[in-house]
Amino acid sequence: MIFPLSGILIGAAIGAMRAKARGGNTRDMLQWAAVFAMIFGLIGLFTLVFIERSYT
Prior knowledge:
The chain is mostly helical and 56 residues long. 86% of the residues lie in helices and 0% in strands. The protein is rod-shaped and about 45 Å long. The protein starts with a helix and ends with a helix.
């Protein structure tokens, strides 16, 4: 399944857009992208585990 990878990519994009909208520089955008990527990646991982365990 691809939920964690999708979460990382979507989270990074959202984080970078939020930092840019708030007037952040490149370092701010990288930091926000990293944090959002981790959060969304974990959400995707838990979603994957839940789906896999519900079918067995």
